[in-house]
Specification:
Blueprint (H helix, E strand, L loop, with lengths): L6 E6 L4 H12 L4 E8 L3 H11 L3 E4 L2 H13 L5 E4 L1 H9 L5 E4 L7 H9 L3 E4 L2 H18 L2 E4 L2 H9 L13 E8 L17 H5 L8 H9 L1 H14 L6 E5 L5 E7 L4 E5 L5 H9 L13 H4 L13 H12 L3 H17 L7 H11 L9 H24 L2
Parallel strand pairs: 1-2, 1-5, 2-3, 3-4, 5-6, 6-7, 8-9
Antiparallel strand pairs: 8-10, 10-11
Helix pairs in contact: 2-3, 4-5, 5-6, 6-10, 6-14, 9-14, 10-13, 13-14, 13-15, 14-15, 14-16, 15-16
The protein binds nicotinamide-adenine-dinucleotide (NAD) and magnesium ion.
Protein name: 1-deoxy-D-xylulose 5-phosphate reductoisomerase
Function: Catalyzes the NADPH-dependent rearrangement and reduction of 1-deoxy-D-xylulose-5-phosphate (DXP) to 2-C-methyl-D-erythritol 4-phosphate (MEP).
InterPro entries: DXP_reductoisomerase, DXP_reductoisomerase_C, DXP_reductoisomerase_N, DXPR_C, DXPR_C_sf, NAD(P)-bd_dom_sf
């Protein structure tokens, strides 16, 4: 007999890279976890496979045609899973009374609503969707505090910092004695490419990350280092850390996932093979530990750990993110929205790689003075930034 009550999980973004790794961990521990609901945007064939395997109570497809196809296929297979459709249903499966924990693994600002719904409902929230915190850090953290939700970071760096902080952190997000938070960064596929080649890199090259297999948007963000910029803002909100104590360290092996330095000079690091199942399993079982299917770290094989300062000329997006964090107000939401638009345009070959920062910068300049004290204000800042970014993208693509 199991000694644990079974935890029911909703996986938002189940068909993505993080969603699939989450279900891999679930499958290893049928005595601990059962799936309450799964969601995807429009990949009904992949979601069908997952639903047949995990038999959740609900499956949500955002796209209506994909939902109809999934419903028909499940009916034919004799499945009892109920298919819901649309983004309101995402909030329902995130906040439902029968749910114990929610994996927030939708990519981009689209994930904010359901992640916030889980936080407001006091769930154990496993947060992969960093964009949600960048957009609405204060609102999100306030919702967590008010509802008594438990917020556990899935992003490998933040999960590492969480593990390097005192155990009491989860209930006291302002630990004392911390001097610096050191976020490691692989530097992405273009860390050492000649600068003059960057203008012509393709989406395929940008998505070929040296150490991690990830969705396309975060892969491009890693190549520009905007991913690290978003993570600096994420760390600010998660750990109550001012920009001044957050430092980015380029560490190309991706073995040290991040570090915390204390005022006595101690530096605590978390190491492991680059496999997202480690932070996922850590957060799912927290405060216990479970097998994640990750192989042991072979330090003799790793042999060297290298560290470099980030090159802000090569990676202007990182500097823009620090500037947005310092500016506050609508700047982080603007940075995120303009980046999402620019990355999409780059993936569709409408603009070049170096144009991504060129789209974001003028948007940031124009958002000063815009307050973001409510969800509506955040969404308005997001919409305004997307409008500005699309205009910049049109200019840049016309000039190509
Ligand atoms: P992905 O592109 O592989 O998967 C995204 C998932 O979100 C899919 O299931 C997709 O159907 C769903 N989705 C996309 N747009 C949607 C929309 N508009 N509405 C509803 N659902 C939508 O992405 P991923 O790599 O799994 O990343 C997911 C999140 O986790 C991102 O925020 C990313 O920054 C973060 N993250 C990922 C990794 C990683 O290793 N992949 C590491 C750290 C953080
Ligand atoms: Mg990360």
């Amino acid at each position: 007999m199991s000694q644990h009550a079974i935890q029911r999980i909703t996986v938002l973004g189940a068909t993505g890279s993080i969603g699939q790794s989450t279900l891999d961990v679930v499958a290893r521990h049928p005595d601990r976890f059962s799936v309450f609901a799964l969601s995807a945007q429009r990949q009904d064939d992949k979601l069908l496979e997952q639903v047949l395997r995990f038999a959740p109570r609900f499956a949500v497809m955002v796209d209506a045609d994909a939902a109809a196809r999934l419903r028909a296929a499940l009916h034919a297979a004799g499945s009892r899973t109920e298919v819901l459709c649309g983004s309101a249903a995402l909030e329902e499966i995130a906040a439902a009374g029968d749910v114990d924990m929610v994996m927030a693994a939708i990519v981009g600002a689209a994930g904010l609503g359901p992640a916030l719904a889980a936080a407001r409902a006091g769930k154990k929230v496993l947060l992969a969707n960093k964009e949600a915190l960048v957009l609405s850090g204060r609102l999100f953290m306030d919702a967590v505090a008010e509802s008594g939700a438990v917020l556990l970071p899935i992003d490998s760096e933040h999960n590492a910092v969480f593990q390097a902080l005192p155990a009491a952190y989860a209930r006291n997000p302002a630990p004392s004695g911390v001097r610096r938070i050191l976020l490691t960064a692989s530097g992405g596929p273009f860390r050492a490419s000649p600068l003059e080649t960057l203008a012509s890199v393709t989406p395929e090259q940008a998505c070929a990350h040296p150490n991690w297999v990830m969705g396309r948007k975060i892969s491009v963000d890693s190549a520009t280092m905007m991913n690290k910029g978003l993570e600096v803002i994420e760390a600010h909100w998660l750990f109550g850390a001012p920009a001044e104590i957050i430092e980015v360290v380029v560490h190309r092996q991706s073995v040290i996932h991040s570090m915390v330095e204390y005022i006595d000079g101690s530096v605590i690091a978390q190491l492991g093979n680059p496999d997202m199942r480690t932070p996922i399993a850590h957060a799912m079982a927290w405060p216990e530990r479970i097998d994640a299917g990750v192989r042991s770290l072979d330090l003799f094989d790793v042999a060297h750990l290298d560290f470099e300062r980030p090159d802000l000329d090569r990676f202007p997006c990182l500097a823009l993110a620090f500037a947005a964090l310092r500016a506050g107000g609508a700047a982080p939401a603007t940075l995120n929205a303009a980046n999402e638009e620019a990355v999409e345009a780059f993936l569709e070959r409408r603009i070049g790689f170096l144009d991504i920062a060129r789209v974001i910068e003028p948007c940031l300049e124009r958002c000063a003075g815009f307050e973001v004290d409510s969800l509506d204000a955040v969404l308005a800042a997001d919409a305004q930034a997307r409008g500005l970014a699309r205009a910049e993208i049109r200019k840049l693509s016309a000039a190509r």
